[in-house]
Amino acid sequence: MLQVVFWIAIAVVGYTFLGYGIVISLLVKLKGLIRKNDDKSVEDFIPNVTLVVPCYNEADIIKEKIVNSLSLEYPNEKIEIVFITDGSNDHFREVLGEFPSVKLLHEDRRAGKTAAENRAMKFVDSPFVVFTDANTMLNKKAIKNIVKHFSNDNVGCVSGEKRVLVEEEDSASSAGEGMYWKYESFLKKMDSKFYSAVGAAGELVAFRTSLYRDLPEDTILDDFMQSLLIASDGYRIVYEPDAYAMETGSDSTSEELKRKVRISAGGWQSMKRLFFKITPFNHPLLFFQYLSHRVLRWTITPFLLILIFLLNFFLLNEGFIYQLLMIGQVFFYAAAFVGYVLENRKLRIKVLFIPFYFCMMNYAVVAGLFRFLKGSQKSTWEKSKRKS
After folding, report:
1. CATH number of domain containing 136
2. 126 contacts 207 by C-beta, under 8 angstroms
3. Rounded to two decimals, what is the model's pTM?
């Protein structure tokens, strides 16, 4: 019985982190053989659009963001740029005052990003709205590349790509974040080609204005929830890698862990709120992708990793394969621990980035669960420290 549980646990973990990538790639190829690409986007589709940049005490970087936004290749008469600075108490007015063409929305109440976005939408009168974070820079054709997909009536949301800029001397967490997002981008691309991407990242995301709905102010992952609610209404989420937002990696391991725990707490909150929205009965394809890409990773796999290690210990006398797997696990976790120790001493070995980041990511899921159960994860803005 222990052996059955052990191998089932390994199968689930393997499927979650590697197997799903293989399965979804094969499904995309199979779909391509059966029918042609159903992406009917029109390249010269240039609708009116509003670019909204929520920010909290970002005065030191928003000038660069404004310049970047104004330099995007999109007709000036077709785009309105809005910065919403609710709760900020720095010198943002002085910076934004230099750019009269940029609209400023501000109120002193600090209620968080979700509340700010809800309020900003009351001032949006274009058919499409694009949200982007203040600490990211967009490529020149980002808006054009992202909104072209809305020429297809069944597309309700378009997610851009997040690119983490990694330098040689960056921390293990920062480099690990970069590698993680490369793999995540691959999965999003496959998801989008098969049926629908599973969620969107707030660094760069666009919605049909008519489909946007106000979210509860305590929503932690506003971008993920908004996109999945739109998908639950029967619309597709398209992933567009040629519209990308660039940002530096986390400033330190502690900053990246804090960010990951927040995302994990938000994941638990999102799964609770989406429980009856996305099911195998009302959205079978989306549910398959949602379960495989998000739910398994956000729920049972970290606990299965612990179970696998414990069961492996009790199965050591059952054959050489169990002894070999135990040696492999010990080496992997030892490499993660060494990576952690060296990181704290500012010594970095690239081969240790993956086990270190993998373990940190799974620890964050468990920590996020406890934070969610305690209700201690704030939805108000907390600036993440990024490398400058």
Report:
1. 3.90.550.10
2. no
3. 0.90
